[in-house]
Amino acid sequence: MSSGNTSPWLNKNLLLLHFTVMIWGFTGTLGALISIPAVALVWYRVLIASVSLFLYFAITKTNIKVSKSAFFKLVLNGGLVGCHWILFFASIKLSTVAVTLVCLSSITLFTAIFEPIVNKKRISRLEILAGAFIILGIAVIFKFETQYTKGIIAGILSAVVASLFAIFNSKLVKHHQAPTIAFYELSGAFFWISIYLLLTHGFNKTAVPNTADIGYLLILGTICTSVAYVAGVYVMRELSAFRVALITNLEPVYGILIAFFIFGDLNKMTPGFWVGAVIILSTILLYPITQKKIAARRKA
User: Fold this and answer.
1) d(CA 82, CA 235)
2) Sequence-ordered alpha helix ranges (H) in 142-250
């Protein structure tokens, strides 16, 4: 039963998205633990995820047929997925988990800019303002050092690609089931990365994961990819790409907290982190409330 007075945060899709973002936050820690390079890491990740989803469909006898047009759209969007993850893990290798996750928060600003352009709508001043506060939170959390310049650039580019992926997926999810989208996009990512490795003779250099890497990759490919990816796509049926991007900004908060508990690095929890985290959290919590009040005033 729904009600007009229901809190914008007491929503099963939002709760599911928060849980998914927590899992995504854990991927940064896994990326730091896995020793192989970023491209190889993502190649193994999407391979494991695609196979696990295929086995799920085979066991449940699920029909995953789509039209040729939908197939090409999903596979192309899969290219964005692969590109986003490669840049994400490259950023981790070039900097730190925390720096990468905080850079990823800029996805809100890029989504606020790109979504209206793609959907041919007027740019929302409120969304731009929210994105600006997210950027402020990023700036407060870290005083970036020059040795992390390449990692910062990779992290921001990762956010740009992720925002485009989320916008396109918000359209695709209206016509296809989340597991089907996940399978074709992850398979598409595997296809495009394989093409890249073939053209660059990357398979000759692709590192063979050690025993610990295999365990981490299995967790990354199944729980953090197959399960989380399906859940993330599913909630896009009800939530806008911007709302998804906004809540995704909790990933650095969750991710750094997880890294803190696993690595026990107190240096990660600086006063700047807490101030920046409060700015990001406040923006995320206040955005839907402010949006609702503005809509109510317009109707009055």
Assistant:
1) 21
2) 149-172, 178-199, 211-221, 228-235, 241-248
What single-letter amino acid sits at 172? Answer: L
- Give pTM, 2 decimals: 0.79
Using alpha carbons, list the distances in angstroms from residue 239 to 16, 56, 188, 259: 11, 26, 24, 29
The Cα–Cα gap between 21 and 109 comes to: 18
What does the alpha-carbon distance between residue 276 and residue 95 come to, in Å, rounded to a whole number? 19
| Segments making up each domain of the chain, as ranges | 12-299
Cβ atoms < 10 Å from Cβ of 35: 13
CA distance 113 to 135: 14
Rounded distance between C-alpha atoms, residue 74 and residue 183, angstroms:
9
pLDDT, one tens digit per residue, over 208-233 is 889 999 999 999 999 998 888 788 77
